[in-house]
Amino acid sequence: MTGAWRGGLVLGLLLLAALPAAAQSPAYREHSETFKDWRLYCQVWSEPRRAECELLSRPGSDRRSRLVWLRSSERWMEGLRFRLDERTMDLSRIVRVWVDRALFRPEYPCERFEWETSTCAVTDPDTNARLVERLAAGKEVSAVGSAPAGGKAEVRFSLTGLQPALERMEEIRRDAGIPWK
User: Fold this and answer.
1) What distance in Å separates the CA atoms of residue 9 and residue 16, rounded to the nearest whole number?
2) Which residues contact 105 (CB under 8 A, 6 or more apart)?
3) Span of the secretion signal (predicted)?
């Protein structure tokens, strides 16, 4: 065995020994907290610097439906999404959003979202910001549309805990020094 080959072997073994330690330390910090009816999950990445957060709520007994707000320093992830059980709601038809028994305007802000099954999304940034502001002060939000068999369908989500979850999400982002774009 030559000295160069032996040196390369030793270096290779040292690199292999270091791999498990590097693989165990994630490139991001996680935050997972619950605020009454809302769950907050964030990943704050150091390289490249970015923050990705998800606020999630489910209605009481309907485990297939959920309301999710994905907030990220990468714009493509931003927007409220109503993931609704396709057995309950026909998303090929219009869906209206009601906050505390008042119709949110524009009347049809939630449009079918092709990238996620059984989902309508509020993708316009200004509409999304206004809706989140209304939700933060509200008690309940409803997605109202048509049932697959016909007739009205409604899925209600509690807003209890949303305001402190939003505040905590902003605190995590500020502490990381990462702006929302």
Assistant:
1) 10
2) none
3) 1-23
To the nearest 10°, report the CA torsion of 154, 67, 77, 53.
Answer: 170
- Helix axis angle, 162-176 relative to 125-137, nearest 10°? 130
Nearest of 14, 34, 30 to residue 22 by alpha carbon: 14
Query: Residue 92: phi, psi to the nearest 5?
Result: -80, -10
**What pLDDT digit, counting tens, does each position of 61-105 carry?**
777 899 999 999 987 777 899 999 999 999 999 999 999 999 999
Q: Which of 55, 79, 52, 74 is nearest to 66 (CA)?
A: 55
What pLDDT does residue 180 have?
85
SS3 75: helix
C-alpha 126 chain-centroid distance: 18
DSSP letter assigned to residue 21: H
What pTM value is reported for the model? Answer: 0.82
The share of the chain scoring above pLDDT 70, in percent, equals: 85
49 has pLDDT over 80: yes
